[in-house]
Amino acid sequence: MEKIKVQDSVGSVLIHDMTQIIPGVSKGPRFRKGHVVQEEDIPVLLSMGKEHIYVWDQTPGLIHENEAAERLAQAASGPGLVYDSPKEGKVTLSAAQDGILYVSEEGILALNTLEYIVFSTLHNHRPVKKGDKVAGTRVVPLMIDEKVILEAERIAGTFSSPLLEVRPMKSLKVGIVTTGSEVFHGIIQDKFGPVLRAKVESWGSVVLGQTLASDDVSRIQSCIRDYLSQGAEMILVSGGMSVDPDDVTPTAIKEMGAELITYGAPVLPGAMFLLAYMGDVPILGLPGCVMYSKTTAFDLFAPRLLTGERLSRLDIVKLGHGGLCLDCPVCTYPQCSFGK
Asked: Could you give all domains of the chain from N- to C-terminal order, each with its CATH number?
């Protein structure tokens, strides 16, 4: 890389994008990498505060910021992502499909511990739409030692999964069992069904049906088994999740031989959330807050299950950090801190 005076630069090829800022009007590249400087460009460059420009002198072992950013994006990207061409040395990664963003927090940290590497992402497990920006990367210097990029590529390759990917939510067959003798006998109107059906369908899955069950262990178990026999791939059991003596939903699920992952989650609202498995079929016990709170533990965990992820208790308890909903007057999830 060689530094020359702007007045002497006619015919030179720019080695990087050059940004022009017009306060209150625009900010962006005025001249792109590869542009051949013309006589009429000289006053513009000077007006941008450029007294010198840099031209490529082919120093062995150095690579340009654009190439470095592209290689970083490629090394970190997995399925469900696309990335654009470098702009002013930065590459932006976007979702190629609707789904859930999965980020290797350890992997991104490892890249950023390398000197001059910059890699920024959205939070792990965030729901995204096709076209959403999910990450950006660049290097700090205009030219960087290729050894740094080779090390970044090596680090990315040591992880068993991509550092970044967007997993689509599968269309599953979902059965809903709503418990509570007061609902079963028609004393009060069911409020769970419409909420759960709307959410399940918004995630692209199909509701097999909704069954009402009294506060009876054998009845609840019979309803769950009925949906399993119909080929349900997820079962939602709503109501009866507190510690009152007549709230028997957790007991019914545990005593039918399901593998209990957790009864309770460090998430508010949704602390009485339950997750169990019958084989590969997740059974979710949903507390009353799911009826009236816009976003709860259900919204944090169900979409991940719909990608095919099998959650452990550790996956759930990790959300104690970030699991507090602020109950905003207007819910903006996922554009907030909840579940992050």
From this structure: 2-55 (3.90.105.10), 62-167 (3.90.1170.30), 173-320 (3.40.980.10)
